[in-house]
Amino acid sequence: MLLRRLGVPLATAVLTFASILVSIIVTVVVTAATGGGEVGPTGLGIAVTVPLIVAPLFTYQILRLAARLDQAEIQLQILATTDPLTEALNRRHFVALAEKEFARAKRYSNVFYLIIFDVDDFKHINDTYGHPAGDQVLIALTNICHAESRTSDVFARYGGEEFVFLLPEADHEHALNFGERLRNILSAARISYGGHEIRLTVSMGIATYRTGVVSLDNLLTEADDALYRAKREGKNRVAFQPA
Fold first, then answer.
1. Annotated catalytic residue: which of 73, 99, 161, 173?
2. I need a labelling partner for 151 at 20 to 30 A (CA). Which of 5, 34, 98, 164 fits?
3. Among 91, 115, 113, which Cα is nearest to 102's?
4. Alpha-carbon span 242 to 228, nearest angstrom
5. What is the dihedral of CA 27, 30, 33, 36, to 10 degrees?
6. What residue ranges do the domains of the chain occupy?
7. Using CA atoms, how far apart are residues 218 and 226, in angstroms rounded to an integer?
């Protein structure tokens, strides 16, 4: 935490100052304990000079190494939990968070909602404009989803062009309104790439956690079934899995 807040140079200065204080205190205590009376200018100078020279040399190198290790740990955490293309949460991390929410909802009789959606005719976008354009569509979609969601919502790339939302502490009206609002915003979006304006639509399936749902997998299957019903009914729409 000290490194993250102060950085290596300032943290080195703080620890060097602390080393000087400790050195002075130790010198005073040892001198008094051995009956040497008061610490003279020479003793005080040594107590200050030695840590002033030694501490920065060793502290800076150690803190720089610690900072690199800390940064590497942060990068590993990011790689383990996020999708490298869109920077949304990845499927594995989403499932871990959703399992916790499932257990909490089951214990306290709470309700939450799952929304699974994908880009309609995404293959057509890739075939028409190229795969880099398809990647840009997914990135733009992710940015819109982040902008429109609550801080408590959990959003992830579920796989390919498929994405998922977990809406905790929500009700039927909020889940449906959120899905419809997001669908409308995405269908109105214009994504510029290579001199083209790319449009997209999404189909969504929503499922509700309630008493009697056996597992998170069952709930995800219900949301997926609702998604495919939206596809069958014409795409660019939201389908709610009946409770």
1. 161
2. 5
3. 113
4. 14
5. -60
6. 2-81, 91-240
7. 12
Contact 203, 235 (CB under 8 A): yes
In a 3-state reduction of DSSP, which class is residue 190? coil
Question: How would you label 124-149 residue by residue, b for 16+ Cβ within 10 Å and e otherwise?
Answer: ebbeebeeebbebbbebbbebbeeee
How do the pLDDT tens digits run along the chain, 243 residues long? 666 677 777 777 888 888 888 888 887 777 777 766 666 777 778 778 877 887 777 887 787 787 777 777 767 777 789 999 999 999 999 999 999 999 999 999 899 999 999 999 999 999 999 999 999 999 999 999 999 999 999 999 999 999 999 999 899 999 999 999 999 999 999 999 999 999 999 999 999 998 888 999 999 999 999 999 999 999 999 999 865
Q: Which fold has domain 91-240?
A: Alpha-Beta Plaits (3.30.70)
Q: Is 180 a catalytic residue?
A: no
Both tokens of residue 168?
A: 């905790």
Gap between the Cα atoms of 114 and 108, Å rounded: 18
Q: Which of 204, 185, 193, 90 is nearest to 134 (CA)?
A: 193
The model's pLDDT over 52-103, given as tens digits with 9 standing for 90+, comes to 887 777 887 787 787 777 777 767 777 789 999 999 999 999 999 999 999 9
Residues written for the chain: 243
Contact assessment for residue 120 and residue 234, using Cβ atoms and an 8 Å cutoff: no
Please give the Cα distance from 80 to 90 (Å, whole number). Answer: 8
